[in-house]
Amino acid sequence: MAHSMGIVMVLSLLALAPLCFCGKTSGGGYLYPQFYDHSCPKAQEIVKYVVAKAVAEDPRMGASLLRLHFHDCFVKGCDASILLDSSKSIISEKRAIPNRNSARGFEVIDEIKHALEKECPQTVSCADIMALAARDSTVLTGGPNWKVPLGRRDSIGASVSGSNNDIPAPNNTFQTILTKFKRQGLDIVDLVALSGSHTIGNARCTSFRQRLYNQSGNGQPDYTLDQSYAAHLRTRCPKSGGDQNLFFLDYVSPVKFDNSYFKNLMAYKGLLSSDQILFTNNAISRELVKKYAYNQELFFEQFAKSMIKMGNISPLTGYKGEIRKNCRKVNAY
Ligand code: HEM
Ligand SMILES: *[C@@H]1O[C@H](CO)[C@@H](O)[C@H](O)[C@H]1NC(C)=O
Ligand SMILES: *[C@@H]1O[C@H](CO)[C@@H](O)[C@H](O)[C@H]1NC(C)=O
User: Closest ligand to 209 CA?
Assistant: First the structure.
């Protein structure tokens, strides 16, 4: 009986294998959604609970947690390097240009980690917490659901130069941004789908001011920005001052994860230059923008796939890295 059960198990595992989105990792190991099923069965429930509480208190928090995972994965892989504070041996990525006065949600990650350390000490990595929090944030704001491959471990270092060089800037050209994605193993489809994250969250005046006043160094605004929308933006984003003033990335439904971001791009009302160029600078990405604007289902499906792909960027597995006790610092030995 036990023997035939074993055979059934092996057969069903083989049958399911092609459906697994498990990513091969640099540690030679694989990430898979059931990683904590035995070592910390309540892990996913605990993450979801804390994220839901945080988003209920601050609707923007979902966006901030989603972005944190992106800024982590693009620098040395999804290894929680972004969470480390500065110390004797570490210069924090929080100081880097894309993160300074901008990245947020660190206290929520701390709260999740605290709860998980109580439930199952030194078991769930900070990198996995971020991947789960990004998924939960997407679902809680109305977006698609997916199973998150797990088993990442945490870095023992950070890279400010990596943050400055590898995370795309809002005024980068289309080619520069695509090149930065390709370096991570992501393609133009991933670029357009993942940019759809900008259907939630905010950006500061300083992230798009150039478009309003002097886009190409000739004292002219960016004419691929709807000019009445631009005039409206100028009222709270003056030529100088107000750098930190906040604006919705998707003015139509700023806290709802939907496809209105893509509709905005078709109306020349993308907030960032990096958003609008997906529609204006490349024929392939333009078609993808249209496709997702017309069909939210297709956007949701691709978004989930691309998030899994992004989450698989060179994780630490096996004996590489560590499971931090406190996400802000490396363990002391
Ligand atoms: C394609 C290249 C990208 C560029 C140039 C870019 C740039 C930016 C900038 C400049 C901001 C506003 C920051 C501020 O002013 O404080 C922002 C916000 C945001 N980004 Fe991106 N981003 C890109 C891709 C992504 C990706 C791939 C994701 C997630 C998978 C993402 C998720 C977000 C979210 C959710 C926010 C709002 C955060 C908040 O409200 O706290 N972005 N992005
Ligand atoms: C992009 O923005 C940065 C920071 O504001 C600025 O230093 C740089 O000159 C801009 N690059 C281009 C090509 O406009
Ligand atoms: C626009 O930018 C260029 C180069 O960055 C600068 O030389 C010029 O003075 C600026 N023009 C205005 C009107 O601010």
Answer: 2
Q: pTM (2 decimals)? A: 0.93
The 10s digit of each residue's pLDDT in 68-124 is: 999 999 999 999 999 999 999 999 999 999 999 999 999 999 999 999 999 999 999
Q: How many domains, in total, are found in the chain?
A: 2
Range of the structural domain that residue 195 is part of: 174-309
Kindly state whether residues 155 and 271 are assigned to the same domain: no
Query: Same structural domain for residues 135 and 191?
Result: no
Per the annotation, the verdict on 38 as an active-site residue is no
Q: How far is CA 158 from CA 89, 110, 213, 218, in A?
A: 10, 18, 36, 38
- The predicted-structure confidence for 278-307, as pLDDT tens digits, reads as follows 999 999 999 999 999 999 999 999 999 999
Same domain, 210 and 162: no
Catalytic annotation, pick one of 3, 38, 69, 71: 71
pLDDT computed for residue 43 by the predictor = 98
Cα distance between residue 197 and residue 66, in whole Å:
8
User: How many Å apart are CA 257 and CA 278, to the nearest integer?
Assistant: 19
Q: Where are the beta strands (DSSP E) in 61-190?
A: none
Same domain? For 147 and 208 the reply is no
Mutate to test the pocket of ligand 2, among 175, 210, 240 (most ligand atoms within 8 A of CB): 210
217 Cβ below 6 A of ligand 3: yes
Whether residue 157 lies inside any domain: the answer is yes
User: Is ligand 1 within 6 A of the CB of residue 177?
Assistant: yes
Atom from ligand 2 closest to the CA of residue 97 = 4
